[in-house]
Each structure stands twice: as C-alpha cells, then as structure tokens.
Amino acid sequence: MTPRTKEQNEDIRLRRLVQIRKAAADVFLNKGPLLEIRDVAAAAGLGYGTVYHYYSNKGDLLHDLLWDALDRAGESLKSSPMAEPELPLKIPLGGSTAGVRLLQLWAEDHAIYLLCKQAGEGFPSLPDARSAPLTAEFRLEVLTPLSTMLGTGLTANSLSAGGAAADPQHGLQHTEMLLAALVGCAALSLRRGQLNEDATEIVRVLKL
To answer: Whole-angstrom Cα distance, residue 49 to residue 71?
Structure first.
C-alpha cells in the first residue's frame, strides 16, 4: 500500500479534530463539566485512544472547541446574506430576523450555542488565564455585531473607536441580556432537536 502523503495525513488530522469537537459539543450540552474523554469517543464513534491522542484532557478539548466555535460565529455574524444569498446561515440585520437566524445557527452548530451559553456564564469551565482572552474576543466578534443586528445601537466602529454610540457599554449589556434569554429559551428545543422549527416562536415570545 502506498504511504500517505503529508497533505493526506494533515487532512485526516483536521477531519478528526472536527469530528471530535462536534461530538464534544453534543456531549457537553447533555453532561456539562461531567463530560469525560470516553464520552466524546463514544459519541464520535472513535476509539478512546484515538481521541486521547488528540486531547488528553477535557480542559484542552473544551478550550479548542470554544475558540473554533468563536471563529465560525464571528464569520457568520459579520457576513451579509444580502450579498451572499446562497449562504442560509448568514445572519441579516433586523432584530426579529437576526434572532431567528441565530437560533437556526445554533440548531446547525451546537458548538456555537455552547459558546454563547458559556460566555453568558463567564466561561466557568475554563481557568481565568484561558477564559479572559476568550471573553474579550467574544465581546468583539459576537456581541458587537449582534448588538447592531438586534438593534441595541452598538456598532463595531463604536467599540473600536471608543465613541460613536451614546452608551456602548449599555448596548453590550442589553445584548448580553437578550442573548442569555435566547440561550435559555433555546435549551429545551435544542435537546429535542426542534430548534429550527421553534425558532420563530421563541423570538415572538421574547418580542425581539
């Protein structure tokens, strides 16, 4: 058998990481901090040794999972569906529509839901040295564009420039509260696998 090339090995490594992190997000939603590497291996359909080769402890796994989810969330929030209509998960401006799209994004990508949930709780599963940079980046990459989309009056320029909005801090706090409400309301539907179907009703109940 012909040996694999470096490119093939790297492709396998990246696909394994995606597989492991996706399974870990699903397990964490159900078990929280009680998650064990063996649980992730079972959910991913991989051997314990395979998962352990990539992540020897759940702290490193959760840390990488959340950063990876943050990258995807930031890209989804910053991209305009009006410019790219073929991308259904891109979130448009407009409070109600943005809320529905965000819920649909969570239904498709549980790691992003976990990111938002953990952010609202201050990333309690991570030590301070790891949670602080993640919190700062989450505010910039997720809360800031989401504030604009939900109509709280905060823009990306106002945060980076330190001005523009009448009260940027109030805008962020308002968005954090709306996000926490969405996270709480989405939890049951997400576990039932019905978040896509329930998204519009959740946003209606919250009066977004």
So the answer is: 28
